[in-house]
Design brief:
With 385 residues, the protein is α+β, with helices and mostly antiparallel strands. It has eleven helices and twelve strands. A seven-stranded antiparallel sheet has the order 2-6-7-1-5-4-3. Strands 10-9-8-11-12 form a five-stranded mixed sheet. A hairpin with a 7-residue loop joins strand 9 and strand 10. It is globular and about 65 Å long.
């Protein structure tokens, strides 16, 4: 994008997360596990104190008091004080953020729950003084991630799939239920106000099951890969194998790990497809109108085998996740995603010269106006959009 001579090119910035895979040795995993265990203890103790004080005395436990109690716990228990304090303080902040969300009526968050080690998922977050990226500091080949743990720092190998845009302000290491370690960095990302290479085209977008994304031009329609259906037999086989094992045994733990890896593989395939589909649509259109679907309501109250299969297909498509991905990709590209209320189209409506199908029947309803061919000026959206 060109700018007048003598003027600085300024673009607003937003915070974003960049996630990378970690290669962790057995020794490093044991040290990280000690950090995870102390974080889980701090969460459970603080949550128990908050709930007990409110239950018996009707008094709230403020964050300031909980932070002072954490200092007292670290002074009394050597094994707790031997671990870094930064992740434990971040745990308290996360807990009280969850408590505030629980009391917020506009937030659907549930009551904070106690954490268990056998759940498999573990996380710890460090601020700037608790980690560092060696070398260039922005994630180029050969850079290592240095993290403060009990007894000093460890140097972790990171699979740098892309460099960091700026120096990270905080970093989270977590282990998913499949046993894989990840590092998530919070960085500042510049986003343009307008598209650098505009196409001057707009479209309404309808998500479906046969055709995942239907636009006004059938050449840009995207088929549904159905990753979950393709892996259904393997998932069912692993679930049956786990069901045969005795609860609490090592064999069942191994099978549970295999099931988690199978589900993680499908989730990664789905997320990769969503990002590629979003970028493909944004390369063709500057403004996309999407319907405000209540996906959770569409898959609620399954009755009968046919409804259960429909719910499984809706979950496999991941419409809600795709909408979030599309909005983020549009923001990075300086383009627009307009969310419009869901409405039923009139019978016999024609969308861009194409008869409405079950996958594209809401196009006219979600845009609230007739969709015209993109070569004649794009779509006419509702006033104020």
């Amino acid at each position: 994008m060109s700018h007048p001579t003598g003027m600085l090119a300024w673009m607003p910035s937003v915070q974003a997360r960049y996630r990378y895979r970690l290669r962790v040795t057995a020794t490093q995993a044991a040290k990280l596990q000690a950090v995870f265990d102390t974080n889980r203890l701090v969460w459970n103790q603080a949550l128990g104190r908050w709930g007990g004080l409110w239950r018996h005395e009707q008094l709230p436990l403020s964050y300031a008091v909980a932070d002072k109690e954490l200092v007292d716990w670290r002074s009394r228990f050597e094994w707790l004080g031997g671990q870094p304090s930064v992740p434990q303080q971040q745990v308290l902040r996360d807990l009280y953020r969850s408590i505030s969300a629980f009391f917020d009526r506009s937030n659907p968050a549930g009551r904070p729950r106690f954490k268990r080690r056998r759940d498999g998922y573990a996380t710890a977050r460090w601020t700037k003084r608790g980690f560092g990226v060696s070398g260039s500091g922005v994630g180029t080949a050969g850079d290592r991630l240095s993290v403060a743990v009990g007894g000093g720092r460890i140097s972790l190998v990171v699979v740098w799939s892309r460099p960091l845009p700026t120096s990270p302000t905080s970093m989270t290491i977590y282990r998913d239920r499949a046993g894989q370690y990840w590092a998530s960095f919070v960085v500042e990302v510049e986003v343009p106000d307008i598209a650098e290479n505009p196409t001057w085209r707009s479209t309404g977008l309808d998500v479906g099951l046969t055709t995942f994304a239907t636009t006004e031009d059938e050449r840009h329609d995207i088929t549904n890969p159905r990753h979950g259906r393709a892996a259904a037999k393997a998932l069912a086989r692993s679930q049956r194998n786990m069901a045969r094992k005795t609860k609490g045994s090592n064999h069942r733990a191994k099978c549970r790990h295999q099931v988690a890896r199978a589900h993680a593989r499908v989730a990664n395939q789905r997320a990769d497809f969503h990002h590629k589909a979003a970028r493909a649509l944004l390369c063709s259109y500057d403004r996309i109108g999407v319907e405000d679907l209540a996906v959770r309501n569409l898959s609620r109250g399954a009755k009968g085998r046919r409804k259960t299969g429909l719910n499984r297909s809706i979950a496999d498509a991941g419409w809600a996740q795709f909408r979030m991905v599309l909005s983020w990709q549009a923001r990075k590209a300086g383009k627009q995603v307009v969310v419009l209320p869901a409405r039923t189209p009139p019978r016999g409506a024609v969308v861009a010269g194409r008869e409405p199908s079950p996958a594209s029947s809401c196009r006219r309803g979600c845009l609230g106006a007739e969709v015209v061919d993109s070569s004649s000026g794009g779509i006419a959206m509702q006033p104020g959009t």
